[in-house]
Automatic annotation (TrEMBL):
Gene3D superfamilies: P-loop containing nucleotide triphosphate hydrolases. Keywords: ATP-binding, Nucleotide-binding, Transport. PROSITE patterns: ABC_TRANSPORTER_1, ABC_TRANSPORTER_2. The keyword Transport applies. GO terms for molecular function: ATP binding; ATP hydrolysis activity. It holds the Pfam family ABC_tran. This is ABC transporter related. Residues 4-239 form the ABC transporter domain. Signal peptide: none annotated. PANTHER family: ALIPHATIC SULFONATES IMPORT ATP-BINDING PROTEIN SSUB, TAURINE IMPORT ATP-BINDING PROTEIN-RELATED.
Length: 275
């Protein structure tokens, strides 16, 4: 478990000769073992936050602390899952897992890497696909391997950027439940920063939801999700409190979307003003 502290994170990108402020003084404290989701309109800077916390990108100003230590680059204390699976295409499911485990634990007995890879394949129900290459697996199966890899590396922090965004709705449900079960039964509960566009997904998974607004990206509101764990999606969706929170989230996001649209339409269009 770890705390994550985002302190006044701003990010300015150079874009077509001018500067674009993607994030403006984002502050967020994430508690030990907490599951927090970032939700907000496209382009509000959710992925940029994941990049900054993972250490792949340095902020223009501000800093991230993990357990009070500043992030200066990528590290084994953070595991990531992205929407695009990020598996090595020339390795089988087993080899992808084994490679990651070996890379993270180079000094251990090599036989233990095999056993560990087999164990995690089984945990996500893919032992029969041990020798399959990623291009022969469905999107859901590939994402199961990515998740197994993240759990097998045993980092303190999980960073997940729309991990289920490319999946159909049934696969998405399966993956959400799989993630919840693996996460809640871990001895040391991981601290999770999760990006999603899906309000129901955020409500099912999160302890808190941070709503972002665009241009530049900021955290507009942070909402506590009061439902006890373990959560059951069948009963959760029928609770009046769930419906009220969902309605609130949707109205905030909808306002953001309309504001964004207004801003776009105010910008001059090359060749004249729209009628
Ligand atoms: N490398 C880059 N160079 C220039 N601009 C960038 C770069 N990366 C991101 N941006 C800009 O920063 C802003 C935030 O991008 P980001 O990808 O973090 O948004 P997002 O909220 O994750 O969007 P989405 O939900 O569509 O994935 C956008 O306006 C984007 O165009």
């Amino acid at each position: 478990m770890a705390t994550i502290e985002l302190q006044d994170i701003s990010m300015v990108f150079g874009l077509n000769g001018s500067n674009h402020e993607a994030l403006n003084k984002v502050c967020l404290h994430i508690r030990e073992g907490e599951f927090i989701s970032l939700i907000g309109p496209s382009g509000c800077g959710k992925s940029t936050i994941i990049d900054v916390v993972s250490g792949l990108r340095a902020p223009t100003t501000g800093r991230v602390l993990i357990d009070d230590q500043p992030v200066t680059g990528p590290g084994t204390d953070r595991g990531t899952v992205f929407q695009d699976y990020s598996l090595f295409p020339w390795m089988t499911a087993f080899e992808n897992l084994r490679f990651a485990i070996e890379h993270a634990n180079g000094k251990r007995d090599p036989d233990s890497f095999d056993a560990e890879a087999e164990r995690f394949l089984k945990l996500v129900g893919l032992e029969k696909f041990r020798n399959a290459y990623p291009n022969t697996l469905s999107g859901g199966m590939r994402q199961r391997i990515s998740i197994a890899r993240m759990f097998s590396l045993d980092p303190k922090v999980f960073l997940m950027d729309e991990p289920f965004g490319a999946l159909d709705s049934l696969n998405r449900i399966y993956m959400q439940d799989l993630l919840l079960r693996l996460w809640t039964r871990g001895e040391k509960r991981k601290t999770v920063l999760f990006v999603t566009h899906d309000v129901d997904e955020a409500l099912l998974l999160s302890d808190r939801i941070a709503i972002m607004s665009p241009s530049p990206g900021r955290i507009k509101e942070v909402i506590e999700i009061p439902f006890e764990r373990p959560r059951c999606r069948k009963t959760l969706g029928a609770q009046p409190e769930y419906l009220a929170l969902k309605s609130h989230l949707l109205s905030v996001l909808y306002c953001e979307m309309l504001d964004d649209l207004d801003r776009q339409l105010e910008e001059p269009v090359a060749g004249g003003t729209p009628a």
